[in-house]
Structure formats: C-alpha cells, structure tokens
Structure prediction request, 721 residues.
Amino acid sequence: MKKNYEERIRTLLSKMTLEEKIGQLQQCGPSLVGAFDVSFDELLNMMFDGRITREEFDRLMGTAEQDFHEDDLRAGKIGSYNGIGDSAAANRLQKIAVEETRLGIPLLFGYDVIHGFRTVTPIPLAESCAWEPKLWEKTGRVAAKEATAAGVHLTFAPMVDVAKDARWGRVSEGAGEDVLLNADYGAAKVKGFQGDDLTKEDAMAACLKHFAAYGAGEAGRDYNRVDLSVQRLWEEYMPAYKACIDAGARAVMPAFNDINGVPCTVNSRLLRDVLREKWGFNGLVISDSNAIAECVSHGIAKDKRDAAKQALLAGMDMDMSSNSYVECLKELVESGEVPERVLDGAVENVLRIKFELGLFDHPYQTNEERESVCMLTEESRAIAREAAVKSLVLLKNENHILPLKSDAKIGIFGSLAADKGQMTGAWAIGARPEDCVSMVEACQERGISCQYSEDGKDMLKIAASSDVLIAAVGEMKEESGEAASRADITLNREHLALVRDLLATGKPVVVVLFNGRPLAIPELAEHVPAILEAWHPGVEAGPAILDVLFGDVNPSGKLTTTFPAATGQCPMYYAHINTGRPGGKSKFTSKYLDAPVEPVYPFGYGLSYTTFAYGELKVEKKEDAVWVSVSVSNTGERDGEETVQCYVQHVAAKRVRPVRQLKGYEKVGLKAGETKEAGFMIPFAELSYYDWDMNKIPCEGVLRVYVGGDSRAELMEEVVL
Ligand code: BGC
Prediction:
C-alpha cells in the first residue's frame, strides 16, 4: 500500500529555515581538482579534439581528486548529489548529512544509469529492437540492483524522447521513432527500476526525461529549438512521458530545448498545467544539468537571478549543477518576488521522494560488502546476453550466408571487433572496458578458427585461408549520444574502404555494424551479402554476436528506427503523411532529385533464419474497439520468433493522418512448420486525434488495418467506424 508521508513532510518543513529549504533544492556533483591547470570540461574537450590522447586524459584524471563541497553539506546547503556511484563515498556523505546537519535530512544520490550500471546492457535503441516489454523491465531490475548497491537512489532514466531524426546523437538513448514503443519501453523501465516497493534497498526511483519533445530538435542538432504544432506534440510525443507517469515514475527532468519559444526549464504550461494539474504528478522535478542558468543564453532570462525566479515559479523543484537556486533564491524570497509558499512546494517535492525511498528511516541503504557481491553476477551477465542477442537485427542475408558453419574459418577486420571499451555505448558511466567481451575474444573462447586484423593489414593472406570475412564497422561510441549530432550519417571513409577491399577479395563478406544511430548505408545494402546490426551491445557483445552468426540463436530483432538512404532525407520516419503529391515518377511529386524517398531499411524490419507467412486477416468493429486477428506460420526449417505488427491508417480525417501508425505488436514464438494466431484489440480511444482547435475527436469513416512483419506490410483489411 502506498504510504502517506504528507504529515511528516509538513512537520519537517515547519522546522526549516529559509537557507535549509533552499539547500534541499540544490544538487551538485563532485568537482574534480587535479594537477591539470584547465577545468575538467576543457580537459574533456582537449581529448575530443585530439589535443591530448585518451591515455593522457586517463593519466591526468587518475591524478585528480574529488571535492564534495563538504562544508556546504554540513551547512545544510546541499540536498542531493549527482554522479557518485560508490557506496563508501555515498555513505560517508550521508553520515555528514544525517549526523552533522541541524535537521539531519538525508541526501538523495542521483546517477545516470541509462542501460545498466556495471552490467552494461545494449544501448536503449538496441534493446528496443527486441520489442519485448518484459525484457526491458528485467534489464531495468538488474540495473537497479547494481546501482543501488553502489549507493544510487535515483536514475536519470528512462529517456522516452521520440526520435525521428537520425542525425541527433541521442537517438541512441531512447526506444526509437515510434511513440507507442517509447511509451511501452518507458513504462517497463520505470517498473524495472522502481520494483514493487520504493522503500526496498534495491529499488531506484526513475526520472523520465527529457520533458518534452527533446528529440524533435531542428535539423537533428542537439539542444536545438523545437517548433512543433501542439497537435503533434500531444499525439506523437506526450503519450510516452504520460505512460511513464502512469507507471509510477517519481521524477521528471525537463528538457534543455524550448518548445515553440519557451524553454522547458521555465515552461509553466508544461511543468505546472500539464504535469501537476492535468496528470496529477506529485513527485520531483529536477532540471537538466546547468539548464536553469542556460535560460540566459536562450534569451528568456536577463540573468541567473531572473532564470532562478522563472524556473521556480514554473515548477522546477531541484537545480542540477547551475547553483542558481543557492545563489539567488534567498534574496528572491526575501524581496517577495518569489512567494515562500512556492519555495515550500518545491521543498515538499524533494522531501517526498526522500520519504518514499525510505531514506529518513534507512539513510544507509547499502554498504561496501553488498556493493562487492552485487556487481556483474552470473545471473546479470546472462540477462545482458539475452538482451544483446534479442537486440541484434539481421538486415541482409543473401544466399543464406548466415548462419556460419561451426567449423567455418573466419577472418575478422576492424578495431571494433576487439575494442572492449567501445562495446558499452555512449552512456555507461559505471562501465569498465575489462568487463566486456569483444568479438575476437569470444571467438577465442569458443575455439573458433579465426584470424584478426585491426586495420586490414594482411588482408589477402587472411582471405586466402578463410571461408568468410567479417568486417566490424560503424561508429565509435563517442559518435552517438549527447552532443554527438552528425551532419553526415554515412559510414566513415575508412570503414567503407575496408568493406570495399574485403568485397574485392571475392570471399563472402559479413558486415557487423556497431553504431548508436541509424546509418545511411545504401552501398552496403546493395553489395554486401550479409549485414548484422549489432549497435553497441554491452558487456556480452562478443558472445551474443557469435550466438547469432553461428546460429545458436535465430535472430529476431526488428528495427525501431528507419534507416535512411541519405542524410538529406532526415528526418525520416515511417509514420509520415502522404502529402497531396506522394512520391512517384512524374516531376511534380514530393521527392528528391538526387535520392529516393524510400529508406534502405524500414521501421519494424528485421530478418530471421527462418521465414514467416501470414494467413487470413480478420478485422472487426466491436462495441468500443477494433479487434484484429491473423494467423502466422513458420514456413522455414528452423524454430523462430516473429514480431507481428499492427498498423492503422485513417483514410479521410479532419486533419491529415500518418500513412501508418503502430497500434500493437506481439512477439510470437513458432516452431518450424507451426501456425499460431496473433490478436490485437485497439480501443476507439486510441484511434482518436486532435482537430485544429485541439479538441479530441473520434476516428470516423474508413480505417485501414495492416498486419505484417514490418511497417511496409501489405496485408490489409478495411473497417468502417
Ligand atoms: C543530460 C541528461 C543527464 C544529465 C546528468 C545532461 O547533460 O542531458 O540526460 O541526465 O546530464 O548527467
């Protein structure tokens, strides 16, 4: 039963001084003090732009010390820390908060646990390709068990920013381009992170982000403006955030971007009217890093003080890293510019999540012993392997090159086949390269006959004595994630050259792609006989890839993001509208002169080592829902899993509607030769949409229902609503 802490919150609040209240709204991270005479950020930049090597960076960082601002903590000026994933440090600071501050209010420790803590699972975009909410919940649970053992109470995840633009680097952090998948993924992660009782020591509060529509930034550039009709905002983006709130997420992080001119950080329509009033959320709202101060750069606040005032009034409870609240709120409250009751409301939200996590009763929820036994257990590794295997998407398999025979002699090329640190993806701060198993290592472990060349040296020699050549190409992990937008999403020159050279040997070539976003790979799709999309698969990268390459597991992943043919097509997504002149042969149609309008690989697409066929599709209108059923058969010789997808198109509506919208999906396991029924129930409410005046109106008239194995499915029945 949900406990009610309101009485305790009010009692505590009544004892707090103004400074103590403001302190509760302050989240900071440890500062790094080192033997380098530039700031940490500058040091990071130096590594990224090549002024220092990764090794030099690591060496300097090794000399750095962390400053936890303990005097401020003692004075009650800090309510929360970000980025401390270490039980000893967390407990030491917690002890100061509990024993040495006047009121003994415990600290809240936040951390970015995006796809695993030590047991790094595939990047979210990859994991979403499993189309399996139960798996998403399970990996969330593993992450929570480990992170809480390291002292973490709150994760800044899930990210459910629908992302339709492959140029945006953070495509990697969410469940792709579809709103239903993001909603399901987010809800499952919230359940996994939080468990069934937030007071349990292995439950971690979830913070959905980035509220709202961060993925819709203009030109795919990170942090960029979002100019979006309210109809699209509510139809294509908001349901994913709402699903996380409904699943019980206890925190929300507003996005860096503005929406239609108002930065989310100071957007009271979003933070108060929608989140608090409409959705009834009473958890914690925490800013993105430094976002309050950045309202000055946005051109919405004249200085930090103004930004602090606007943010608090808009409903931002906690300030991550910008120090705007600690520096400015006292004066703002004392001058009456910010009513104290508004401040009190924010403090209550901070105290509430601390009570809900059980921190007042058990401030020390872990210790070094628990931390040492919880990490990277056999069970967690097994789940990471399952997730990695299910995330892999077989894009091409001409002449059944795959699966490889168990005694096949293979030549492997490209640094990504051996670079363990690259397997973790962009957002795995707790990751350790040595925990990862690379493809080359996995081959050695399996006793596979394999020769490896990092850069293509000895290619001809290796090719001559191999049956098949494997190219590990794609993106380094730094090429996706935050602040990693790309204006060109094709395969880089060296990787392309490597693949061309391998093809020129005349041996069969398999490309294994490691990347954090869709890549425009028309040349590969045309000339390479087999392509396996591996993404950044996490600690079990190598074994999972070999499981699929050698056929121990039949691949079942399906893309949750469209693979464009050219960067210029971006944003490209399956749920587009038709226009009045859909692409065709004649000149005056909606198309490009120099690129197709079709993608290379569509949303929902992915091959298996077996084949599936769909039988009769039945679509029926019942009292308040459309009922869909279809039979699906495994027509090949291997057992396999097919993700049956159900799309709708509203043919003549009051606003133009997408050519297809995903309304249901079901993963069906089928033995060779077996047939099963898949069924979907689509409530009318889920077919309704907004008119020009933002009235929600029902779907009326002809509805086309498509069912099949990807978003191009042709099996269709109409129903009149
Ligand atoms: C990111 C957030 C993240 C935060 C804290 C920001 O730069 O946008 O997603 O949670 O940093 O690390």
